[in-house]
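Thread: "does anyone have the structure for this chain?"

Original post by V.I.:
We have the sequence but no experimental structure in hand. Need at least a predicted one for the grant figures.
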Amino acid sequence: MYIPFILFALFYLFVINTMTNNFCVSKEIPEEKQTKIFRTVNILITILITSSFFRIYYT
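Reply from O.Q.:
Generated one for you, tokens below.
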């Protein structure tokens, strides 16, 4: 039962990272700031996915 959620989470993280990359390229953000942006976005998305997992499977 966990495998579909994990696959969805990986796909969602990939799509968000692709969108973040496109944003950084279109706004011409320097490489030094891109790592901070990606780190922040990935941490926030991971928190969102984890909380969604607990809400779906443990409530």
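V.I.: this helps a lot. The chain has one domain: 2-57.
O.Q.: and The chain has a mean pLDDT of 96.
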